[in-house]
Amino acid sequence: MVLTPALLFHTMSTVHVEQLNFKPVAMYFVAALLLFAGVLVWQGLNRRAAVLALSCTFSNTVMIGIPLVSLAYGQTGLVTLFTLISVHALVLLTLATVVLEMVAAREERGQGQGSQWHMALTVLAAIKSGIIHPVPLPIILGLLFAQTGLVLPEVVGKPLQLLGSAFGPVALVLVGVTLTQVQVGPYLKSALGISLLKNLVLPMLVAALGLALGMPTRSLSVMIVAASLPMGANVFLFAQRYEVAQEVVTASMAVSTLLGLATITLVMSLVGLL
């Protein structure tokens, strides 16, 4: 609520829309949707399948992605990542909500319950929450400010810069704190399978599509690294909201994050050869 918006707004407040390239982002979502659909069909087109499909495609682009990309690719890489972050949750969480609500509506119709109106309201609420949120909103506002041609006065810009620079180390500490509360136990096998799909298969799909389409190396590198990031916390909130596969998702978050120490290193080493 403080450090993240400060970093996002300050970074995007000097970026003009014509500098943004949405082609790598579109390519990223094509790869994510392919994996999402594959897991959904494989797991049986039900509520649990929708949550697990989201688990395999939703990256921790903020808490881990921002510090990592900032260190590896600098300001240019951050702008590319922020372009993805601005629509990441909106696209994937809305998709998962639509799928889950359709499945739920089908189940409820079989029991003589449910309505199309309820489903529509839920989807609209998902879209709204994907925009009115501490992550995409400051990106959008920062971009809008940049288009005015104005420059942040130092009395505003300097505090935002200081708050934003604190985000990286604090975020990584919080990730570690979260992991200490997670019990993996009997869900290790399922969590490991989900983590491998998330950490390795998704970046492989992004890399294959990007190379086939001739994407610029720098943009493609950031997208591949973003795809290799561990599972994001929003997946747990999603599972909790629908009361589906909460234990598996929680375990998968922990395993995906710990496994990321090895898989992100591997992915970034291979990306460096592009």
Biggest sheet record: none
Report the structural category. Answer: mainly alpha
Share of residues in helices: over 70%
CATH level 1 name? Mainly Alpha
* Total individual domains: 1
Q: Based on DSSP secondary structure assignment, what is the total number of beta strands?
A: 0
| CATH second-level architecture | Up-down Bundle
What's the assembly state of these chains? single chain
Mean pLDDT: 84
The backbone outline, from C-alpha atoms, is globular
Number of helices: 11
Give start-end ranges of low-pLDDT stretches.
none
Question: Could you state the order of secondary-structure elements as H and E?
Answer: HHHHHHHHHHH
Beta fraction: under 5%
Distance between the termini: 37 Å
Q: What is the CATH topology classification name?
A: Na+/H+ antiporter like fold
- Radius of gyration over alpha carbons? 19 Å
Describe, in short, the structure shown:
The chain is an all-alpha fold and 274 residues long.
Could you outline the blueprint of secondary structure elements for this entry?
Elements lengths: L2 H10 L10 H21 L3 H9 L9 H46 L5 H16 L4 H12 L6 H26 L8 H26 L3 H12 L5 H9 L3 H26 L3
Pfam families: Mem_trans
Protein name: Transporter
Membrane topology: Multi-pass membrane protein
How would you describe this structure to a colleague?
The chain is an all-alpha fold and 274 residues long. The protein has helices at 3-12, 23-43, 47-55, 65-110, 116-131, 136-147, 154-179, 188-213, 217-228, 234-242, 246-271. It is globular and about 55 Å long. The model has no long low-confidence stretch (mean pLDDT 84).
